[in-house]
Amino acid sequence: MQSYSVPDSAPLENKEICKLINKGLSPQQLFRASFTFYKASIEENLIQESEKIYVQSGIFKGMVLYPKSMGSSLLPKWLGTYESELLAMIHAHSHGLDFFVNIGSAEGYYLSGIALLLGIKCFGIDINPSAKEATSFVANSNKVTHLVSQVNTVDDGIAKSSGKLLVLIDVDGAEIEVLDDLSISLEKSSSINEVLLFIETDVLSRNRQNTSLLIKKLINKGFSIETIIRQDPTKRFVSSFLQFPFLDQAVRGCEGRQPNQSWIMATKNINS
To answer: What is the pLDDT of residues 225-246, one digit of tens each?
Structure first.
């Protein structure tokens, strides 16, 4: 193994990093660890210094956020770049939507955001027992409690909806099961006539994506595949933060997701 050294005049942190590399840790491992800890410190400072945390840019600009992370990073949401490719596509196809069901709704980021943006009833489902309290906090902070609520099952959310329905699925590996539940619920509904669905793909074993499996399942369930929304790293930066060094911008915008993850946009006409 190659041994590294730094001059005696080098900063203390360089000397300590050099020791760790010579002990067998790779520069990539050390960078990832430092990146993670630095991001956590920025997030903690933001929480401590802010009475309320507001989205700084983008379609949800001005929305109050839940001051903790629940399965996703707080900083990109605060920055306004979080899943901006997905949000732009939802916004572009939002005309005529009547209800929103978010399966895997976490702290209610999309529930309150869509309620503010479109003024429609929004129902969230999440297995995390903390989701209900967090969702209530976000809805109350944004004065949309009359539009946002948590329900226990997919069936409950579909039963409360009608007309043109927006569905967003983010369930980290349980996509196939959720699509089965959703299809059963839609078959029982007599009041929903159109579905606009967005579902996040996930990583299977050996770093394989489940995109093709999800597409096959959606087609079998009567959905039409409209597009695949792919990640665009350039959308993790906003002009109002260009005064920060590049790495500081990257830390704030990093979502920590797999490079090949994407979203499938699909539609289905019902009872037509």
So the answer is: 999 999 898 899 988 888 889 9
